Amino acid sequence: MGKGCFAMDDRDREKILRIIEQRQWAHTVLLAKKSAAYHAFLGLEKSTFVDRKLSKKHKELIALGISVVKNCESCMEWHLKQALDDGASEDEIIEAVEVGIEMGGGPATVSARFALKVLEFYRSPAGGHPPVANEDAARTGLGQAFQLDGRFRNGIQAVGPPAGVASMAPAPLTSK
Predict the structure, then answer these.
(1) From CA 13, how far away is CA 84, in angstroms rounded?
(2) Read out DSSP for 150-165?
(3) What b/e readout covers 69-100, taking b as 16+ CB neighbours within 10 angstroms?
(4) What CATH fold (topology level) applies to the domain 10-31+53-128?
(5) Do 176 and 72 meet the contact criterion of CB atoms below 8 Å apart?
(6) What's the Rg (C-alpha) of the chain?
(7) What residue segments make up the domains of the chain, in order of their start?
(8) What is the reported pTM?
(9) What percent of the chain is helix, strand and coil (3-state, nearest 5)?
(10) pLDDT tens by residue, 121-169
């Protein structure tokens, strides 16, 4: 994957990082504002995405297919990453995307392209390194500055792990 004229490029990587950053920012703000609706949503999400008759991994794969049909790029990024974290293989991810294509028809093939780029993002040698809210942003809830792999980020900068660090554990993220 990743070969050819439609492979993920720097703009795609920035788009994915921006989606992650915006989700973290909104999460921080909504928690700081003590949003009852958001808190209820987080509870629903937590109670839904647990192992029961269906494993959490399989639920994430289902949600990924639905995200393709809905053309929700933030949802695709979130559920694909969660599925990978829960042990989904690249083949399982592709099958979930294919189910989304089947259920959504032609328009879902457009959405599927983004899901494939997210998969490439997390499977690339540099790996996907989501931004981590800095202490000031977490404390104030304003999320004005985010830290990306050890560098503060107020706009678009180069991405990747800090010098000498092969990978960074992502911050605990919650919700799309």
Answers:
(1) 18
(2) TEEESS----SPPTT-
(3) bebbbbbbbbbbbbbbebebeeebbeebbebb
(4) AhpD-like (1.20.1290)
(5) yes
(6) 16
(7) 10-31+53-128
(8) 0.69
(9) 60, 5, 35
(10) 998 876 665 544 444 444 334 333 333 333 333 333 334 433 443 433 3
